[in-house]
Amino acid sequence: GAVVSQHPSWVICKSGTSVKIECRSLDFQATTMFWYRQFPKQSLMLMATSNEGSKATYEQGVEKDKFLINHASLTLSTLTVTSAHPEDSSFYICSARAPASASTDTQYFGPGTRLTVL
Amino acid sequence: GENVEQHPSTLSVQEGDSAVIKCTYSDSASNYFPWYKQELGKRPQLIIDIRSNVGEKKDQRIAVTLNKTAKHFSLHITETQPEDSAVYFCAASRGFKTIFGAGTRLFVKA
């Protein structure tokens, strides 16, 4: 149980275009999902917390107009990188909290999406 | 702001030896401490976790200890195997907020 998928697994795009990444909880409902960014050989940096049915909460320094997050259902959150530039190239990983019925704060991670902006 | 410090950044051990990774956290309200293993290009996988009301937890070759007074927790891997080679992240969590350490790259030499 507690499987999280992410799509696409990798994407290459031209500078100036927008890219949408999907994060799905496959076998449980997730009212809260998290979006992280990871540079090579570095740690996971939280970008935003995605809440179903409400606006996402962004971490300091993360541009909400550039990284659009939509959590439209209890199993799907999307991250759209708008007007992507080469410096946005990174590994983006989502996670979802364990089912509400479980007495745990465990986060389950998606497989990640490697974005390369040319 | 809150942070989690993790040491060492790189650890190389001989197969069969033990490996210890240490983390300290700054937010005294943190109450959940998971450890993740991440292989190259893959997702972080939870390997063990501990809550603030417990001082130690063990799962086969993996154990975690927590010292709330010192705000310090550690991961212990015994009888290391080559497949233990990966990056390990500690984290400290309070509610919806989780802060990750910088990671430790573990090499287990056969």
How are the SSEs placed, and which strands pair?
The complex is a heterodimer of chains A (118) and B (110).
Chain A: E1 4-7, E2 10-13, E3 19-25, E4 32-38, E5 44-51, E6 57-58, E7 67-73, E8 76-81, E9 90-97, E10 107-109, E11 113-117
Parallel strand pairs in A: 2-11
Antiparallel strand pairs in A: 1-3, 3-8, 4-5, 4-9, 5-6, 7-8, 9-10, 9-11
Chain B: E1 4-7, E2 10-14, E3 19-25, E4 32-38, E5 45-51, E6 56-59, E7 62-67, E8 72-77, E9 86-94, E10 97-100, E11 104-109
Brief overview:
The complex is a heterodimer of chains A (118) and B (110). With 118 residues, chain A is mainly β. In chain A, 0% of the residues lie in helices and 52% in strands.
Description:
The complex is a heterodimer of chains A (118) and B (110). Chain A contains no helices and eleven strands. The mean pLDDT of chain A is 90. Chain A has strands spanning 4-7, 10-13, 19-25, 32-38, 44-51, 57-58, 67-73, 76-81, 90-97, 107-109, 113-117. Chain A is globular, with a radius of gyration of 14 Å. In chain A, 0% of the residues lie in helices and 52% in strands. Chain A has 118 residues and is mostly beta strands. Chain B has no helices and eleven strands. Chain B is mainly β and 110 residues long. At the A-B interface, strand 5 and strand 10 of A face strand 4, strand 5 and strand 10 of B.
